[in-house]
Design brief:
Layout: E1 3-4, E2 9-12, E3 16-22, E4 32-35, E5 39-44, E6 47-52, E7 57-67, E8 70-77, H1 94-190, H2 207-214, H3 242-255, H4 273-285, H5 289-302, H6 307-319, H7 323-336, H8 345-361, H9 365-378, H10 383-400
Parallel strand pairs: 1-6
Antiparallel strand pairs: 2-3, 3-8, 4-5, 5-6, 7-8
């Protein structure tokens, strides 16, 4: 049963009330203070000070100071005037005190909840503004880079056109030279039989002149144009994988169909899932994993078929130790990476490794080993994967024993 403190003092002015409560030798660190507009409570076992005020005060402007063995309350009255007493006229009513106490506690909890919600809204707004500012800076940098690239492309195009002009001029000069050589040779062949440079023996035949007369003219130079059939996949075409590759290309075409979201707060760039993916990649490289996840989340809203977004978001969740979400994103990425073709082998390998790591962090070593074995089928010579798989097997065996 607490001991009620009654030897407190108080005084007032037209606008304020001052209450001094003695601590009676109790350390200040063990004092619990609770106050609202109509209720004051100081709990420092075994003592208890509790009053319902005569009139309400402005709790947001009140202060409580602990020091020199006392607690001093400086309270601001809501309405100016003299009270002539500190405690409410109905303070002896226990039911009233109980209801006032509960109302004060509820009001305090509600105020704390409202303050927490306000802080959350402010934090979300700050994060949003920071993200937009970061995107703006990245966009300016991207535009600058594009301008530099465009200037380089124009210079390269001009150099190429200049080189082509030089080549055409050189080609034309070679053709003129060849034509002159052919004309000279034809003239010599159609003239009357010239005097031989070497006297012939009687009975010999003019074999040399016959060969010269039958020799074809020299060929003119030229270029042979070879056109190759365009191919998206970097590997040679295999008839056995044509159907799988066509299905993969069809899924990629579906993934490029962007969902139109009618949100006036989003810019045109923020409605581009590929741009958002690149933005998330930039945040990840800088170590801002939460911002990367936010960018990937918006990209998924716009296009739920991009396997790279799920895979990269899984990496962020793995860094943030959100292992369940990492497993979900890896599973979704593997679902989109079907059918299995050579073009998506590396993506499937990374997804299996990340999901296996998340399983092991959750101590689900059997499931983790299955993913590592699937990764080893894609890259059987990877030394690191072989070593990690052996460690997981050893962990499973030690657990069973």
């Amino acid at each position: 049963m607490p001991i009620t403190v009654k030897d407190y003092t108080w005084d007032e002015t037209e606008t304020s009330v001052h209450v001094v409560v003695p601590l009676k030798g109790v350390k200040a660190s063990k004092v619990d203070i609770f106050s609202t507009d109509e209720y004051l409570k100081v709990n420092y076992p075994p003592y208890l000070f509790e009053v319902v005020l005569f009139q309400p005060v402005d709790d947001s402007k009140g202060t409580a100071q602990v020091g020199d063995g006392t607690i001093t309350f400086n309270l601001q009255k809501k309405e100016p005037g003299l009270w002539s007493r500190l405690i409410s006229l109905n303070s002896e009513d226990k039911d009233l005190m109980k209801s006032k106490r509960q109302a004060a506690i509820d009001a305090t909890h509600k105020k704390a909840q409202q303050e927490k919600q306000r802080q959350q809204v402010e934090k979300q707004e700050r994060d949003r503004m920071a993200l937009k500012e970061q995107m703006r800076l990245e966009n300016e940098e991207r535009q600058r880079i594009e301008e530099v690239k465009e200037a380089e492309r124009q210079k390269a195009t001009e150099d190429l056109e200049k080189w082509k002009t030089q080549q055409l001029a050189a080609e034309k000069e070679r053709e003129e030279t060849n034509k002159q050589n052919v004309d000279i040779f034809d003239d010599e062949a159609t003239d009357a039989e010239p005097l031989p440079a070497v006297r012939k023996h009687p009975g010999s035949t003019d074999k040399t002149q016959t060969e010269v007369k039958g020799q074809p003219p020299p060929r003119s130079s030229g270029n042979i144009q070879v056109t190759f059939t365009p191919r998206i996949f970097p590997t040679p075409l295999r008839e056995s994988k044509v159907q799988a590759e066509e299905e993969w290309l069809k899924k990629q075409a579906e993934a490029r169909r962007v969902v139109d979201i009618d949100d006036p707060d989003l810019t045109e760039e923020e409605k581009n899932p590929v741009w958002l993916k690149d933005k998330g990649d930039g945040f990840f490289k800088s170590g801002n994993y939460l911002a990367a996840v936010n960018a990937y989340n918006l990209a998924v809203r716009l296009d739920s078929k991009l396997h790279a977004v799920y895979s990269n978001r899984a990496t962020c969740h793995l860094k943030l130790r959100n292992f369940i979400k990492c497993i979900e994103d890896c599973s979704k990425a593997l679902e989109l990476l079907t059918p299995p073709v050579d073009a998506n082998a590396k993506s499937r390998l990374r997804a299996h490794v990340k999901r296996g790591t998340a399983f092991c962090e959750l101590e689900l070593y059997v499931e983790g080993l299955q993913d590592y074995e699937a990764a080893l089928k894609l890259d059987p010579t990877n030394v690191q994967l072989i070593s990690d798989a052996e460690k997981i097997r050893a962990t499973i065996q030690s657990t069973v024993e």
